[in-house]
Amino acid sequence: MTTDFRPSRRFLLQSGLILGASALPFARGAKASTPLKVAGVHGSPVENAWNSVLHRALLDAAAEGKIEYTFSEGISATDYPRAMREYAEAGNKLIIGETFPIERQGREVAADYPETAFVMGSSAGPEGDNFGVFGTWNYDGAYLAGMLAGKMTKTGVVGSVGAIPIPEINLLINAFAEGVKATNPEAMHLVAWVGTFFDPPKARELGLAHIEAGADILFGERIGTADAAKERGVKAIGSLIDYTPAYPDTVFANALWGYRPILDAIIADVEAGNPTGKDYTAFGLMKEGGSDIAYVKGAAPAEAEEAMEKIRAEIKAGTFTVPQNFDEPK
Fold this sequence. Notes:
By secondary structure, the protein is α/β, with parallel strands linked by helices. The chain is built from ten helices and eleven strands. The chain folds into two domains: 9-134, Response regulator (Rossmann fold, 3-Layer(aba) Sandwich), CATH 3.40.50.2300; 139-257 and 288-317, 3-Layer(aba) Sandwich (Rossmann fold), CATH 3.40.50.2300.
């Protein structure tokens, strides 16, 4: 993985894209004549589930000729503001990334480059005209997966492994717990935190601890949780991406999240010269087509799947709202 802030050699070789063409000015009413120059600053390797979703959407947009995309991965919090600055200085007009551990510093960088759009995964709100935010709200799918888990658990104990108790991860895990409660009010929900965004071995260890405590279904907000479930022969639920192909006998459901609807909305604003200091989170909701559940039919009892599908349809129609709880799970 890259450790400096130059474009990834791996990306250049794989994509064959030519970098360095002129890009759209961040000005009202400007029209795009060449693909928008976009940089991705990834705090974790792009193999990490969350980063992989952003990375895939950006790669697809680049392959379609909508953007020119460069990126760096595995950037530490101490180096992150410098990466943002270097990409802005290099002429990128849109910078995508995450400021969860550096909210203040990220906003300071954006203020210094008012003609560059910065749109970051963040637990805080937008700021000014050019610092936008988005949250990872795949909690609708987590709730639905929880409904299935509540009917599937034989021990009455389920466990969640999360990264860090920031609001949007709290929201996700709380939604899963509410889904379990909706179909099995007596079930016990265990929660453990990895302490960082990418440490699969630690996530595996925490998953094993949940299993030792009686859990027979694990909700893996972090990569590594499904490894523990597979090792001990229990079931697991994935988050963000579809883990079932890699764990066909273990992962029976996934709370999916897609970044492309969010990215398209951001690109449209930049190309139109509109301010990007707004919250783009809603484009990733299930009712907007940005998230969903993928599950193995027949893994849960038929009546459980039927009840879940009913709620799923109501969420998409906007007639059922999954409770939002941003507090740290108990």
